[in-house]
């Protein structure tokens, strides 16, 4: 997968255009590489994960969000991504498949600060707003911080 993508990048660069983002199949292969990274490829793998997956509701974003959510919950591991880093990366996805894992992380004392920060900067919440509101009403201090941030328009 890595060599194919490097070839693609080189071909596109020769044409003066940026490489295409990863698709769902490539993202699934990347997930496996992130779980057991080949020596010397760590930085490239993280760059692909961070910068070459479309945000939002693309199929590759679904795979990315699922992987990062699993890392955050401790259901899978990567020597390159701690749970807190997984939350940070979920926070860069702008909305879509990343929202539920971030909301769930509000209940984890270790992950809640990062999740609150990420959600405070996420505007594409749709009906998930009510999930955060419910947590805030139930006394979740991090959910309250998110709600206040939105009310103060601090996230934009």
TrEMBL record:
The keyword Glycoprotein does not apply. Residues 4-154 form the Aconitase B HEAT-like domain. GO terms for biological process: tricarboxylic acid cycle. InterPro entries: Aconitase_B_HEAT-like_dom (IPR015933), Aconitase_B_HEAT-like_dom_sf (IPR036288). The keyword Lyase applies. Its EC number is 4.2.1.3. It is an enzyme of class 4 (lyase). Keywords: Lyase. Pfam families: Aconitase_B_N. GO terms for molecular function: aconitate hydratase activity. This is Bifunctional aconitate hydratase 2/2-methylisocitrate dehydratase.
């Amino acid at each position: 997968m890595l060599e194919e993508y490097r070839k693609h990048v080189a071909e596109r660069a020769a044409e003066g255009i940026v490489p295409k983002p990863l698709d769902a199949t490539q993202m699934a292969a990347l997930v496996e590489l992130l779980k057991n990274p080949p020596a010397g490829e760590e930085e490239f793998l993280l760059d692909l994960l961070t910068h070459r997956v479309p945000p939002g509701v693309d199929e590759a974003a679904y795979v990315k969000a699922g992987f990062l959510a699993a890392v955050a919950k401790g259901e899978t591991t990567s020597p390159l991504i701690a749970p807190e880093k997984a939350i940070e990366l979920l926070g860069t996805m702008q909305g879509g498949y990343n929202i539920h894992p971030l909301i769930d992380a509000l209940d984890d004392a270790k992950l809640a600060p990062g999740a609150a920060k990420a959600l405070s900067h996420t505007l594409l919440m749709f009906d998930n707003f009510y999930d955060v509101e419910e947590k805030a009403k139930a006394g979740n201090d991090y959910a309250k911080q998110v709600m206040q941030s939105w009310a103060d328009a601090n996230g934009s």
